[in-house]
């Protein structure tokens, strides 16, 4: 977070030394077994098989936009056979096959089906994967056993319930749903239809976070008394990742020049700028086409550079193909922002769905839910068993501090939670729900802002004997605070040391290969485990983020939004976290499984 290079090195060295019985020995065992690829690490660590016996799970992917493409990029072909995709946008369909070629980092995260399965062309890929605009056509396929859902949030319950009633198992992106009622109804349908319903809070499948939990459980940092989490972004007006360009009609360069002259004549400099903002995507396409033409005419140009620009231009052209799509056919509509005169068109609501309360859940749903999920996992690790403890209260504020009134959602949120800590419950057992000492609480503070990216994102876990920092889902750092503990001491450099052996040298090369590999964020492992559980007939409780766990994560995020809207402190009702209870924090009560009828609202 806010650390010098020297502090970061100390924190990293401390963690590498102190967790000798977990991560280091895990890597040593893995290397000794000859499993030196990251692909095998998740299965080995979380206790499922590295293959499912050649009988791959036949899957459809519904929603292939930004997050859907991340999930496609995380697929392990040994587990998953994608039979079809469904998305109404030509742009999303294109990226589903080709990946995201706009930058190296985007291409790495969103590889596309062709790269995942080794298909050489889109034609070859489409011989294996069918494409639908309407997801209901995909659900009619008897050869598809399960679906991965990465639609906008307001469609999660609709698509998931339709899928389970069509006989499909489901893995849906987070949040579980747009309301607590919808989450409970999804859980009830899953139970009635006997389908596995998983939700994509991938930190449950992160080896990095699992090792951090083990470190906490072993008492290395003492008792947790505070967690500070944040997700800060320099996501400013004019460069807002949640407000991508909208497609416009295609114009030739001469038509663009004529339109610019007309816009300036009618509206002056402001009119010209407004036109350029609206047609930014088209103007960028024209520039890219010119760059590609220049490279093709340059005898010294590298083939790799030409290919890269061909892919970028093809992706931009596919993005322009969204123009003219009737988004009202897929549940989107025109909307006027209550504050001001901004009117959002159906296609804008489809593409910029994260900006509207009707279709998204704002910062708490998209970002905060991950980190409150992690905070709950850390706090729960101090209790016996596998019970995930619930927060007691939330106090929150937020607002649209830097953006104009062209959205509903807040661009800054700040939340404070009270959780039970060690000693809060009798016998340190949350299942008793008998309070022993109400002073034994853990306070969690969370902030998500768009105005400044200083500090990035991560969690700082403060205990009585040390501090654990998890940064960007990529690195864990450990710092001591005072005195000594059972196996850990603090030296003059504030570095924790221990007496663990460094491990044998026989597998040093294998361990090095694993330790230097990119840290998995857990997407691959969550999909692998879901597929493995389906193939092996495992109960829903085997899933790390089963409906009960996912419901809890949704309750926290959605009630936080409620606290911001109502400008009040809210006490969490334990009944909200029970899928079988009809209690909800707001809105209508959930229905019984047989009475549930889903529709886009």
TrEMBL record:
<protein>
    <submittedName>
        <fullName>Glucose--fructose oxidoreductase</fullName>
        <ecNumber>1.1.99.28</ecNumber>
    </submittedName>
</protein>
<dbReference type="GO" id="GO:0047061">
    <property type="term" value="F:glucose-fructose oxidoreductase activity"/>
</dbReference>
<dbReference type="Pfam" id="PF01408">
    <property type="entry name" value="GFO_IDH_MocA"/>
</dbReference>
<feature type="domain" description="Gfo/Idh/MocA-like oxidoreductase N-terminal">
    <location>
        <begin position="57"/>
        <end position="201"/>
    </location>
</feature>
<feature type="compositionally biased region" description="Basic and acidic residues">
    <location>
        <begin position="589"/>
        <end position="601"/>
    </location>
</feature>
<dbReference type="InterPro" id="IPR050463">
    <property type="entry name" value="Gfo/Idh/MocA_oxidrdct_glycsds"/>
</dbReference>
<keyword id="KW-0175">Coiled coil</keyword>
<keyword id="KW-0560">Oxidoreductase</keyword>
<dbReference type="InterPro" id="IPR000683">
    <property type="entry name" value="Gfo/Idh/MocA-like_OxRdtase_N"/>
</dbReference>
<dbReference type="InterPro" id="IPR036291">
    <property type="entry name" value="NAD(P)-bd_dom_sf"/>
</dbReference>
<dbReference type="GO" id="GO:0000166">
    <property type="term" value="F:nucleotide binding"/>
</dbReference>
<feature type="coiled-coil region">
    <location>
        <begin position="285"/>
        <end position="312"/>
    </location>
</feature>
<feature type="region of interest" description="Disordered">
    <location>
        <begin position="575"/>
        <end position="601"/>
    </location>
</feature>
